Automatic annotation (TrEMBL):
It comes from the Bacteria. Pathway: One-carbon metabolism; tetrahydrofolate interconversion; Amino-acid biosynthesis; glycine biosynthesis; glycine from L-serine: step 1/1. The record marks 225 as: Plays an important role in substrate specificity. One of its GO terms (cellular component) is cytosol. Keywords: Amino-acid biosynthesis, Cytoplasm, Methyltransferase, One-carbon metabolism, Pyridoxal phosphate, Transferase. This is Serine hydroxymethyltransferase.
Length: 417
């Protein structure tokens, strides 16, 4: 047998370089994390070879007895983790879970209300470039420009006027708690379905560190690879809605938007949910929030503005709109220091989404590699040093200095080695 390096030197080198990059860089992209070695190993299992269209016990192919075990484990563990009575673990990713919800619960042309992408929503919540924005009449809601908080009164006013068939809760960039009970009350007033996409905060929800949407929403979707720290994938959850509702969701996933499920990923989801049911996972999620607060405090002490004034979850959005440089410049300067974050629009951003006036940072990945408050405060200090230097034109020199300290810290906290 040949090794990967012998058979495909280019690919082998790309993987080695990526392994090194993940070890040597500090990862602050709020949607990323490091899956455990066991989650990684299961994705590499023979389950990848198996076709299993359908659901456990009702497959279109023979030979599904062992993949059925894996899928049933994933479903049962997710039900225990999120205290719910319906789970579909087949969505290939968050976007597919969301597509299935649209397909199951509204018709093309129906009115749907979602959080404005520019205020922290996700593409699949109605952006014009996405299927959601193309096929449905989207009415966005957003943040109060003064406070940077979701304006629930305004959400209610818009809902009463637009009368959506579905109201979407959930976000890709919002650092505060969302009031799910209030959203359900608004949905009930207009007869809308409440769907919460908890992709970013699912791990925090599982650990009791973020308000649980399941008692309030008709349906909840999530990715499995962000704070939840599993393999890349999606899930759909629900509670107390009854079999007819669940059948609609199941048939929207398969055969609605997908063919054969990725059984190796579903097995890895089962393992990740077992990890998430452990006491260590709760401790980890608590530390994720503590670390985010520690970073926000340093940034604010050093004069940086955080949208909404702080964070209650794993992320924050730094508002750079009063700075002489852009989000893109900040992103590039931090990359130069081996710190990976992402440029992000801030509410009412005058700049394009490719340039932006903000930076989104999050703590799931650094917390997984073992950073505590002391390391996060140090890291936040370096972040400020690099950004300060952008104003004086000395960011490259400062980045070179910070890079050495980043390398030393990363060696102290290896990800996999
Ligand atoms: N929903 C939310 C809130 C997200 O932030 C994301 C990804 O960033 C998704 C859905 C889409 O997930 P995926 O990239 O797995 O399709």
């Amino acid at each position: 047998s040949v090794t990967l390096a012998e058979f495909d030197a280019e690919l082998s080198e790309a993987i080695r370089n990526e392994e090194r990059r993940q070890e040597d860089h500090i990862e602050l992209i709020a949607s990323e994390n490091y899956a455990s070695p066991l989650v990684m190993a299961i994705q590499n299992s023979v389950f990848t070879n198996k076709y299993a269209e359908g659901y456990p016990g009702k497959r279109y192919y023979s030979g599904c007895e062992y993949v059925d075990v894996a899928e049933r484990l994933a479903i049962e563990r997710a039900k225990a983790l999120f205290d719910c009575d319906y789970v579909n673990v087949q969505p290939h990713a968050g976007a597919q879970a969301n597509a299935a919800v649209f397909l199951a619960l509204v018709k093309p042309g129906d009115t749907v209300m979602g959080m404005n992408l520019a205020h922290g929503g996700h593409l699949t919540h109605g952006n014009p470039s996405n299927f959601s924005g193309r096929h449905y009449r989207i009415v966005p809601y957003g943040l109060d420009p003064e406070t940077g908080l979701i304006d629930f009164d305004e959400m209610e006013r818009i809902a009463l006027e637009a009368r959506p068939g579905m109201l979407i809760g959930g976000f890709s960039a919002y650092s505060r708690h969302k009031d799910w009970a209030r959203m359900r009350a608004i949905a009930d007033k207009v007869g809308a379905i409440l769907w919460v996409d908890m992709a970013h905060v699912a791990g925090l929800v599982a650990a009791g560190e973020y308000p649980d949407p399941l008692p309030h929403a008709h349906v909840v979707t999530s990715t499995t690879h962000k704070t939840l720290r599993g393999p890349r994938g999606g899930i759909i959850l629900s509670k107390g809605q009854g079999e007819d509702f669940y059948k609609k969701l199941d048939s929207a996933v398969f055969p609605g938007v997908q063919g054969g499920p990725l059984m190796h990923i579903i097995a890895a989801k089962a393992l990740a949910f077992k990890e998430a049911l452990s006491p260590e996972f709760k401790t980890y999620q608590r530390q994720v929030v503590t670390n985010a607060r520690a970073i926000a405090a340093v940034l604010q002490q050093r004069g940086y503005k955080i949208v909404s004034g702080g964070t209650d979850n794993h992320m924050m959005l730094i508002d750079l709109s009063d700075k002489p440089y852009t989000g893109k410049d900040a992103d590039a300067a931090l990359s130069d220091a081996c710190i990976t974050a992402n440029k992000n629009s801030v509410p009412n951003d005058p700049r394009s989404p490719f340039v932006t006036s903000g930076l989104r940072i999050g703590t799931p990945a650094v917390t997984t590699r073992g950073f505590g408050v002391a390391e996060c405060e140090q890291l936040a200090g370096w972040l400020c040093d690099v950004l300060d230097a952008l104003e004086s034109g000395s960011s490259h020199q400062v980045a070179c200095h910070v890079r050495e300290q980043v390398a030393a810290l990363c060696r102290r906290y290896p990800v996999y080695r």
